Amino acid sequence: MNKLQFTCTGFKDGEKIPQKHTGRGEDLSPEFNIQNLSDDAKTIAIIMEDMDVSLPFLGTLAHWLIWNIPAQATIKAAIPHGNVVPSLGNAKQGLGFGRHKYAGPRPPKGTSHSYKFTTPINSQTPTKNKRKPPEQTQKP
Questions:
Q1: Which of these, 24, 90, 93, 132, is most buried using a 10 Å CB contact count?
Q2: What DSSP line would sit under the chain, residue for residue?
Q3: Mind listing the domains of the chain with CATH numbers?
């Protein structure tokens, strides 16, 4: 089995992230290419972390989280804002600095930070939460 390869179009591992993908530019998510994706893969998640910021009890600062992206070899750049992304099979985006969107790098001026993208692959189809709401109780 070949090793999964995940790359960003427009910059390579260790290179500076182009301004259009930063908070000082257009703040657009980059395009991603995934090679050697298993036939069993159902969905993809992408997590972007700032490796130079550590939060007490939480660890690194997550700039972006998107999940339930249907498994595919290319994820186009400029993913639209929103909690749900219809153009990506209703993928869900977490909060990035208070908004459901990609939040590109924007370290303090004069500093440089390192960022890491990770891509968990899910081989199971996500299911909707079927929990019943808590029962209402009334006090006499």
A1: 93
A2: -PPPEEEETT--TTSPPPGGGSTTTT-PPPPEEEES--TT--EEEEEEEEEEEEETTTEEEEEEEEEEEEP-SEE-SSPPPSSEEGGGTTEEE-EETTEES-----PPTT----EEEE--EE-S------PPPPPP----
A3: 5-122 (3.90.280.10)
